[in-house]
Amino acid sequence: MFEYEVVDVLPIGDRCIVFTGKIGKGQVHVGDELRLKSPKGEVGVIVMSLEPRGFRLAGALAGDNVAIVVEPFCLDDIADGFVHVEGITYQVSALTLHG
Fold it and tell me: What are the sequence ranges of the domains in the chain?
């Protein structure tokens, strides 16, 4: 089981969405399908890349701090899980990626 507590959400135009946080359980790989859960609902996303500190990995494990880059989707579907802070940054209150 994979679990990742999201700290920040950064939509990059219509190209991708970047989640930052720490892997709590399991592992994740590029190409994995994950479920993003918030108090409002659930959305499926595909991992496009994993980027800890500016370089790319094929996979990451529990305990790793990593940015998970996913395909773009409508953030309104899960909007109750975060609030807009500034520019393209969102402060997350309750989002978790599961796989």
Answer: 3-98
State both tokens at 42.
């659930």
Q: In sequence order, which residues have a C-beta less than 8 Å from that of residue 74 and are 6 or more positions away? A: none
Is 6 within 8 Å of 97 (Cβ atoms)? Answer: yes
- Backbone dihedral angles phi then psi of residue 20, each to the nearest 5 degrees: -110, 150
Task: Provide CATH code, domain 3-98.
Answer: 2.40.30.10
Judged by average pLDDT, the poorest of 29-33, 42-46, 69-73, 78-82 is: 78-82
Assessment of whether the complete model's pTM goes beyond 0.85 = no
Cα–Cα distance, 65 to 54 (Å, whole number): 12
